[in-house]
Every structure is written in structure tokens, then in C-alpha cells.
Amino acid sequence: TIIDPWLRESSLVMIYAERGIGKTWLGLSIAFSIVTGQPIGNWEIINSVGVLYIDGEVSADEMQDRMKKLSAGLPPISAPLRILSSDLLHQNDFASVNLCDPSWRKKIYDALKEQQEIKVLILDNLSCLTPGIEENDKVAWDAINQWLISLRFLGISVIFLHHAGKGGKQRGTSGREDALNIVINLSTPKG
Predict the structure, then answer these.
(1) pLDDT value at position 14?
(2) Which of 19, 11, 42 is nearest to 182 (CA)?
(3) 3-class DSSP state for residue 173?
(4) Distance (Å, whole) CA 83 – CA 51
(5) Residue 191 confidence class, pLDDT cut points 50, 70, 90
(6) Helix, strand, coil % in the chain, rounded to nearest 5
(7) Peptide bond into 5 cis (omega under 30)
(8) Using an 8 Å Cβ cutoff, are 183 and 170 in contact?
(9) Closest to 123 (Cα-Cα) out of 23, 43, 41, 191
(10) Separation between Cα atoms, residue 36 and residue 34, nearest integer Å
(11) What is d(CA 153, CA 174) in angstroms, rounded to the nearest whole number?
(12) pLDDT, tens only, 176-186
């Protein structure tokens, strides 16, 4: 167990919500909790492990600002926290992360296999990291799903952040949920 009661080694998790609810804030909070061993709300960190956070949406400056705010007052990290920013890649004339591209999936897989201290991968967010995918097509999702399962076999837990559609459910094919252990829907609390 990494986060009690819901994140275990090799878990595949989707957290989805409408725009502006706080998916990135929650994703970063989860990352900092895991690497510092500090609880997040009622969720206890049982094992502090390394985290790779891949961001496809937020500007690098905004990401740094959020990280400074979230880490203020926390104890030092006890496991590595690595950030891969599509914005920084783009600023340095590299291609942005694209999980639809098999070479990107292989690079990430190989990096996680090599860096065994990293046990949690957070993907923020699915829409930005899978440009051009037909969201309602299960077949289009199959290659990414198989990659996620291969990460599970490595002992990597994957949390991916995703948008809700107009009806409030996760946007796109329901086949996206077939291999998942946990699906969390964020919403604005009443009042």
C-alpha cells in the first residue's frame, strides 16, 4: 500500500472532473504527500516512494508557483519527485509528450524500468497528453491501455487526470475504465 486506503503498488487510477475543479492541485498534492510521507486529508501515506509527474497542460512558471505553494511547510522529501513538463520541453525545442506516439510510451517505460525508485506515475492530463486521439473510440485507446498494463507489470502505479464530459462522466470511451482499479470523480462540494 502506498496511500491507504486506495493506492497500492501496480494500481491504475483515473481522477476526473470538470475544468477548474482542481485536478492538477490534487495531483500535485498527492505527489508531495507520497514523497514526504505526509497524509493528504484522511489518506495516510504507508510507503513513501518516488513519483514521476508528467504535465501536459500547465505552463512551467505556473507549475513552479503551485509546487512552491504546496511544498511550503512540508518536511523534506524522502523519495524522488521528478517533473516532466511539456511546456519546458516545447520551450527548449523538444517535442511535447504525446502518449499516442509509441516512441514516447517506450521512453517513459524504459525510464521507469531503469529508475526503480520511481513507483508512481502521474499523468496530467489525459486530453493534453494524447493529442489527436479519438476519445470515443475504444480501439484508439487500446495501445495506451496496453502500455498502462505493462507499467502495472513493472510494479508502477499510474494515476491519470482526465476531464469530465458534458454529462458529468469521464469524457470518452467507457473502455478507458476497463483495466482501472480506482476511479475518482472530483466535484465542487455543496455550499
Answers:
(1) 97
(2) 11
(3) coil
(4) 8
(5) confident
(6) 35, 25, 40
(7) yes
(8) yes
(9) 23
(10) 6
(11) 23
(12) 999 999 999 99
How far apart (Å, rounded) are the C-alpha atoms in residues 91 and 88? 5
Instruction: Categorize the per-residue pLDDT at 41 as very low, low, confident or very high, splitting at 50, 70 and 90.
Output: very high
Q: Which residue has the cell 484508439?
A: 140
> Residue for cell digits 526503480?
116
C-alpha cell at 154: 513493472
Going by C-alpha positions, the residue among 83, 84, 3 that lies closest to residue 36 is 3
Return d(Cα 86, Cα 130) in angstroms, integer: 12
User: Among all chains, which residue has been given the C-alpha cell 500500500?
Assistant: 1
Cis omega (within 30 of 0) on the bond before 185?
no
Q: How many residues does the chain have?
A: 191
What would the DSSP string read from start to end of 48-60? --EEEEEESSS-H
- Up-side HSE of residue 83: CA atoms within 13 Å toward CB? 21
> What is the rounded distance in angstroms from the CA atom of residue 176 to the CA atom of residue 86?
23
Rounded to 5 degrees, φ, ψ at 129 are -90, -5
Q: How far apart are CA 48 and CA 178, in angstroms?
A: 28
DSSP type of residue 177: G
